Amino acid sequence: MTDRVLAIDGGNSKTAVLLVDADGQVLARVRGPGASPQNVGLRRSLEVFDGLVREAARQAGLSPDERVARHTAAYLAGADLPREEHELKAEIERHGWSGTTVVGNDTFALLRAGTTDGIGVAVVCGAGINCVAVAKDGRTHRFPALGRISGDWGGGGHIGSEALWLAVRAEDGRGKPTALLPAVIAHFGTATIAEAVERIHFGEAEADEHALCRVLFDVAASGDRVALEVVDRLVEEITVLADVSLRRLDLLEERVDVVLGGGVLTGTGDVVVGAVRDRLSTSAPMARIRVVDLPPVVGAALLGLDAIGTSPAAELRLRSAYADLAAEPELDVAASG
Predict the structure, then answer these.
(1) For residue range 173-185, what is the model confidence (pLDDT) as tens digits?
(2) Which of the listed CATH numbers 3.40.190.10, 1.10.760.10, 3.30.420.40, 3.40.50.2000 matches domain 4-114+294-332?
(3) Which of the 8 DSSP states describes residue 149?
(4) For residues 151-189, b (16+ Cβ closer than 10 Å) or e, as one string?
(5) Tell me: the pLDDT tens digits for 71-128?
(6) What are the structural domain ranges in the chain?
(7) CA 297 to CA 301: how far, in whole Å?
(8) Which single residue of 94, 136, 173, 290 has CA 20 to 30 Å from 162?
């Protein structure tokens, strides 16, 4: 059997699957709905993964009775604690897609996508916020990333809810005046925030927190002080996550990559990234701040290629191939069941 790697990036908003051979050639790539076990449950997650893997195998021309790959590299949102990793690994192995399987948090895939060796720090700010770090000697540092109960602040959902909260308080007099008020009203298409809140309460409107996150950044770009305070808090949180990770692994004085990714970070240009670079330069002057330019599923595939011991040429081939494929639409597979 030709050595193949099955890579799965299971996010909150979408799931990506990539099938590559040992030379780094892309055999199939598909995308489907978000399937984080924390959001949809373990059973539903595996249903989504299985459907996407079957489609990838079909694209690659594999027989239904044939193993999809030698190794599965599954890096998933919701794999935040060892217990979750073990449960997910057992369920994935039960499907028999490959001979060996590794399950980890999707932030490790982001780190590998943004580095040549998977060494350094990665901070992701998408639906939520998380950070991992890996030292050259194999030591790791990570956070539970379970939301407020584990001390987290940030992520698109959190920032969007802040936008609504601040607009409500601006209208009813409990908060500061802010341009978020008319912007959020315009977002909902209502006459007042109170009307929008009532519609949300009765299920007649959706509090799309990720869309509201974009509203907040737009208002901050206009110079609104209240919105800028939220952006500044996010910058501080990202900086703290990276700084603590570097300290715990004794990397503050090392030349190390700090990789930033996720929809919130990549969608704000240099507003957040430049500020993080400036602040982190004080405590970690040798850190190189980078915004990842490849999706995490590529990082998952690279970790899979690392696991089966392929040559550096395979990495170069995969990176360049995916850069070419990025201009082409991925096959979206609707969830079944």
Answers:
(1) 999 999 999 999 9
(2) 3.30.420.40
(3) G
(4) ebbbbbbbbbebbbebbbbbbeeebeebbbbebbbebbe
(5) 999 999 989 999 999 999 999 999 999 999 999 999 999 999 999 999 999 999 988 8
(6) 4-114+294-332, 117-292
(7) 6
(8) 290
